[in-house]
Amino acid sequence: MKINNVNLDKIAETKEKLQQGIWPEHRIFEVSGEWLFDKVQFMGYVEYDNGSTFLISDQIYAFGGNGNAPHPLQYVVFGIMACYSMVFMAKAAGKGIVIRSLKTRGYIKVNVKAALFGEDKPLVEKVGIVLEVDTDASPEELEEVKILAIKGCPSAYFVMNPIEFESKVVKTESAIV
Amino acid sequence: MKGMNNVNLENLLKTRESVANGELPPYRMFEVEGEWMFGETQFKSTLNFENGSITLFTDQPTPSGGKGNAPNPVQYCVFSMIACYATTFVTIAAMKGVEIKSLKVKGYSKVNMKAVLEIEEGPVVEEVGITLEVTSSASREVLEEIKNLADKKCPAAYTVSHAVPFKSYITFTDG
Asked: For chain B, what are the domain ranges?
């Protein structure tokens, strides 16, 4: 059964496999990339089921970049709002709620003084999402779906909770040409 | 001064001064709009930047109810984190006069699928990590110092390692 462009049968199948221990409990999402010395500053490579793609990012001109690609924080907002929208639509579909259209707006508010001068205030002050929904469901039903989406969305989770973050730096030798 | 590590320090220092003088606001908002799709992918958005724009698509893999026709949102989140962290790391290096000859980055996010699918309660994301492979004539100690500063100054890393207020609202439209 498919509602809201979400295949509920596949989700039910996955849930069953997880419960039976056929599927691993955890999924690791990995992405790699490299710094560029050209018109943009960073390029990443992402593989998915039916293909792969390169993603590029660049700082704005005022912050030392070239303004030739989206800023990394635009990708942060995009990732969070896309993730949240997907979980919202899947939870709505799970409850049999048909959504005719969904438009999403997201933002992240960054303290520039904390980034540039080390001001002792939160570097990121807030993250927000507004969902504009066209549906016959009641506001109460949608509030319920929203609560489930907040609980089940990995991106909302990593915004709202402190997560173990590990960074490592490995120094390599220059290639001999 | 332009050009060190592909970071324009002259522009950055000018901006720093303007923020210090109050000529530029102390906060920056990054805003994005997108919409749900009912075709081959599930969500799309156009990101505008100074010299252009780009349209991105996302889709869940088949086991999660999508068709696997685009990267999934968590992959975008991991990409955004490694891009933001790399940008912060290289910019701090440039400000310290440390030349980076090459930088390769790998990032990951460990997601508990049982928590996502409401099979059990628990942390949805268990850990996030990043590894930087750097070629530079700087010592390991100097690179470690830059990394420690990047840990503190990268907004994406901050969002992962701290609890940030998260607000979500629903508004209704008529079809």
From this structure: 34-71, 72-161
- Tokens 């409990």 sit at which residue? A25
Phi, psi for B44 (deg, rounded to 5):
-140, 155
User: Which single residue is written with the structure tokens 């310290």?
Assistant: B96
Q: Which of B118, B123, B133 sits opposite A170 (nearest CB)?
A: B133
Its pTM stands at 0.95
Other Cβ atoms less than 10 A from the Cβ of B23: the count is 9
What is the DSSP code string of A2-34? EETTEEHHHHHHHHHHHHHTSS-SEEEEEEEEE
> Minimal CA–CA distance to A81: which of A56, A57, A107?
A107
What contacts B122, CB < 8 A, 6 or more positions away? B112, B114, B115
Q: State which H helix or E strand residue A105 sits in.
A: strand A99-111
Q: Decide if A35 and B69 are in contact by the 8 Å CB cutoff.
A: no
Contact B97, B91 (CB under 8 A): no
CB pairs under 8 A between A and B: 496
pLDDT in tens, A126-153: 999 999 999 999 999 999 999 999 999 9
Task: Map out the domains of chain A with their CATH numbers.
Answer: 71-160 (3.30.300.20)
Interface ipTM above 0.90 = yes
pLDDT in tens, B26-69: 999 999 999 999 999 999 999 999 999 999 999 999 999 999 99
CATH 3.30.300.20 at B72-161, yes or no: yes
Coil, strand or helix: which one is A44?
strand
